[in-house]
Amino acid sequence: MLAVRHLVVARWENHVRTALENASKLAHPILVNTIPAFYDNIAQSLTPNYPRATAVDGSTLASEHGGERARLTAYDHETLIREYQLLRKVIYDVMISEGIPLTRADILTIDAGIDTGIQEAVGAFAMVNNSLRERFAAALTHDLRGPLSATSSALELILMLNDLGKVKQLAAKALDSVWRMDGMITELLSTMAFHSGERLTLQLEQFDINAVIKEVQVGASVKGSNIVLASGSPIVGWWDRAALTRAVENLVSNALKYGRPRGPVTIRAAEFDERLQLSVHNEGDPIPVEEQECIFQMYRRTDNARRQQGWGIGLPYVRAVAESHGGSIVLDSHAERGTTLTIDIPLDGRAHGGAPTVA
């Protein structure tokens, strides 16, 4: 069995990539994970006089596998179970094709190890997901507390003032904070709907995307952020203005937060073949290949991102907006090129509004 391990793992990987959509684009090291070691444990459990009763006897391999699937992939528990079932099938197929005999006792031992492995992996998967959601709730509470406190303070002062001018100024600040909270909640609800397989409801209108770029650029400059350079000729199309504005704000915020300190952030808009390519670029450390899909998954954040405050839903929201417009979000990240995130969507969203999205 150990001599054909490479064959088992290769066939299993091929089956998983073909049968499971959430696994199709994972990098090889992330997909293979602890499966080779788990297979070794199965072989040991079948070896006479070897002190291992089943594949999970005295081992946390299955639990670690489930935990990593929760942290590093877009798996759900059904996908996790299915890949163990495919492993079972591949093992039996390879044993038959390679002429390796299995007794009834061997089959029972293999089944017991895989079945218990499924239970332990799913348990760890659920526990890590709960932890991620708790972390998300904590970040959400932290971010909402700021504008809520500002609103409360402004309203308390209004109650004590008779100066109409100052009352209007404070009321404007309170209203601005309320709009900020409303934007946060809208983004949260839209992203949660997207990850539940629903389509975003788009309010399509015709406008020049450069007006959105200018609005985001001014907002970033007012906050004292790095200089945001905008470029691009007028490009008019049919899109959801509020959703695209929020998406670009998220891309710029992400670039300012994780790019090189005091480095420039560049927004570009271009039109090719009746499509809009709206990109945000920053300099700085690249996003590792194995973490590039992770940044688009709800609640999941890269190692670098965990050092910053945030919900972990900004880029998933951008993906939801892009895909709901019938397009996509493209990432390019390299030490010498920097990092560029591009929203690539049709110019006329009326024919594609509410397109299917990846849950």
From TrEMBL:
Annotated CDD domains: HisKA
Enzyme class, first EC level, given as a word: transferase
Transport as UniProt keyword: no
A Pfam family that the UniProt record links to this protein: HATPase_c
GO molecular function per UniProt: kinase activity
Catalytic reaction(s) noted: ATP + protein L-histidine = ADP + protein N-phospho-L-histidine
EC number(s) stated in the UniProt entry for this protein: 2.7.13.3
Listed SMART domains: HATPase_c (SM00387), HisKA (SM00388)
Domain Histidine kinase: 139-349
Domain of life: Bacteria
Entry keyword set: Kinase, Phosphoprotein, Transferase
Protein name per UniProt: histidine kinase
